Amino acid sequence: GANIKMEANSDAISDAISDAIARFERAARLWPLGELTQAPEATWLERWGAVRSLTYPGEPYGGKPTRVFAYYGVPRQASGRLPAMVLVHGGGGRAFADWVMAWVRRGYVALAMDLTGRGIDGERLPDGGPEQDHEHIFQTMQEGLTETWPYHAVAAVIRGVSFLAAQPEVDPDRIGLTGISWGGYLTCVVSGLDPRLKACAPVYGCGHLHENSAWLPIFNEMPANERQQWIEYFDPSRFLPAAQMPMLWVNGTNDFAYPLDSYQRSYRLPRGPRALCVKVYMSHGHEPGWAPYEIAIFMDQHLRQGTPLPTLSAMQREGRVVTAEVNAPLPLIRAAIHYTSDTGPWQQRAWCSVPARIEAGRVIGELPERRPLVYFLTVTDERDATVSAEHIVLEGDEA
């Protein structure tokens, strides 16, 4: 009986994988990937020290050609080919020269593009692509999938990778991608479409947006066929299973837009190495989203052979005692167990953080008596870099 059951399970898993591959391939065909992975011809604009502005071609919009505005930065004493970063803003954002400079100071070539159809002064470009607003993200499906913001934004990011890969100062085998909020959403989609990327760090953004996210009211109002089409072609859950590069997932416990349940379902999909950096009450915004030092450490680890982040194994629980194995190349300065007994919307749950012990390669934390409970462990090394274990949900009847 057990053998039959195992074979049935194995068949079900195999069918699910085949189905996921078929869905991914259907969605991926929407973009002209062969064309997008060719180096675009840039038009250089102005220079300010280490940073220059430029435009490069976007996808046709409303039957007309478009251009994408971007900032490009190169470290001053650059010698040889350097690692490079693609930087993708979120809602209300733009191409940030400051963000480019932050990576240039770390020794990276960096590119930050605008995904709102705007240029240097925040004015609409005469040949800009669609706005980054709810209408163009969700509500222009009837005009055709290629007239939507997700289609144009994904294409602009992939073309950004192609631009970087063609620059003489860039090592095309060492390109990373990070994005914030809607930029994190795009990072998730592009991670499945562009295997040239060697490391990705989505901040806040994830998939399964139709299951739980800030946009549920919009999904609930969409015509059923458009809703299903958006999920099939634009939800990151369709693309993440194809991602194989290392990924660092950065989010807060109470993020207003991308809650921890959809987040966990998303970060479990890619097939490459995974690191988590979930912080209690991390605020949501562009500057909070590019501030975590863990992102730079993660990119250094995978693009420059830098000292890795610590790693935590899956947590084990016996009664109230929770443990995980920890592997840390540098001394750890603290560990903690974080928990909430609240239910209801993730955004509104109150979290407690209690110090945990580090003993002989293990982290040991203690839970309170109360149930239900959600909990996870974190460790922090001497660089003040924190990694977290996957959260676990204990139901009311679990001791």
Describe it for me?
- There is one protein chain.
- With 399 residues, this protein is α+β, with helices and mostly antiparallel strands.
- The protein is 29% helix and 27% strand.
- It contains 11 helices and 19 strands.
- The model has no long low-confidence stretch (mean pLDDT 95).
Strands of the largest sheet, in order across it? Answer: 1-2-3-5-4-6-7-8-9
The total strand number stands at 19
Shape: globular
Radius of gyration: 22 Å
Class per helix and strand makeup: alpha+beta
Topology record:
Elements: H1 2-28, H2 33-36, E1 43-48, E2 51-57, E3 67-73, E4 82-88, H3 97-105, E5 109-113, H4 134-138, H5 149-166, E6 170-180, H6 182-193, E7 199-203, H7 216-221, H8 224-234, E8 247-252, H9 260-267, E9 274-279, H10 286-290, H11 293-303, E10 311-312, E11 316-318, E12 321-327, E13 332-340, E14 352-355, E15 357-359, E16 362-366, E17 373-381, E18 386-388, E19 392-394
Parallel strand pairs: 4-5, 4-6, 6-7, 7-8, 8-9
Antiparallel strand pairs: 1-2, 2-3, 3-5, 10-12, 11-12, 12-16, 13-14, 13-17, 15-16, 17-18, 17-19
Helix pairs in contact: 5-6
